[in-house]
Amino acid sequence: MLESDDMKRIESKTSCAGLAVALAAAFVAVSCQKTSDATAASNVHIQTPSTDEAVKVLANEFQPTIENNRNAALGRAPEGMVWIPGGEFSMGANEPPDMDEVGMKATRDARPIHRVYVDGFYMDKTDVTNAQFSKFVKATGHITVAERTPRAEDYPGAIPENLVAGGVVFSPPDHPVSLDNYFQWWSYVKGANWRHPTGPQSDIRGKENLPVVQIAYEDAEAYAKWAGKRLPTEAEWEFAARGGVSGKPFVWGDEFRPAGKYMANTHQGHFPNTDTGDDGFIGISPVAHYAPNQYGLYDMAGNVWQWTSDWYRPDYYRELASTGGVAVNPKGPATPFDPAEPTERKKVHRGGSYLCTDQYCSRYIVGTRGKGEVSTGTNHLGFRCVMDLRAGKN
Fold first, then answer.
1. Is 132 inside any structural domain?
2. Rounded CA gap, 303 and 346, in Å?
3. pLDDT tens digits, residue range 56-71?
4. Helix (H) or strand (E) holding 130
């Protein structure tokens, strides 16, 4: 997320030291661990198509979704989950014709469109809520990453007073600012964690039905394992979000506000300083407030970002599409690499959040991708889980 000049500015101030300053800027814990920039070999089987089929795939156009038998999952779905039939679909996003340069960044790493097949699976109807995560913590005693004091050995040269437990919090300015530097609206806040999403003065009492936030990747994985589930792959997530419909820009269809109706919790007003709450919410909304998609999934756009299990690389789609075939159950590249922050190990985020707007981040568009350093949570990042068919029948 940081451009190279921003990263240099952080490094000049911190030399991998000022943890809190760096987190406020980058949403990430400053790490000195190097990540290879070599193209990673993906762990994915490719079905080679005929010449005519390959031409269609490489034309960067959406082709129809071919669902598996919807009745393949016999019996009742696990509580709080729905069956996603799986099948073959076109994955990715086109360039929105009416977007400026800022908006275009949302689709830059979501091309070319390529064909993918995923097996059927169960998926949580909603993001994991504060109430659900509370049960997990009570049962296991899990302490989230944001609640742990960073260790000095993990951050050589860090200023001791900056080694404090906390999380990254959206802190809007009280006036318009240039959108080329998000130091201006993100802060690292001591004491921010899932129980106190925006800092010690906040809490989740009476907010049990809101999605849990300030969750690092390992926290989401731990919850999923406890629940007998797992985190979705990026391909599974997009197949589920599209609801069996091919090529639509939004999980609900072609128009952002059909008949003037808000379909997701996004940002209204001037970003980042003013959120008018025209959609009914300033900040996070309860789960399942807006209508579900055609598979019965809520909040697959807006509200909070969602972790997936795939490592992030901007060139991964080009790798898959270059074969001209159908990628079968892809699980992402073997290693992460973000050229903007080459030392950070990032997983793919999906869905956008309540902060998304066409002024800055339009990643409520269904095929677009986010990314996040694995040890960092924010107050607009959560997750949901999936379960394989075999596990669901146990």
1. yes
2. 21
3. 444 468 999 999 986 6
4. helix 130-140
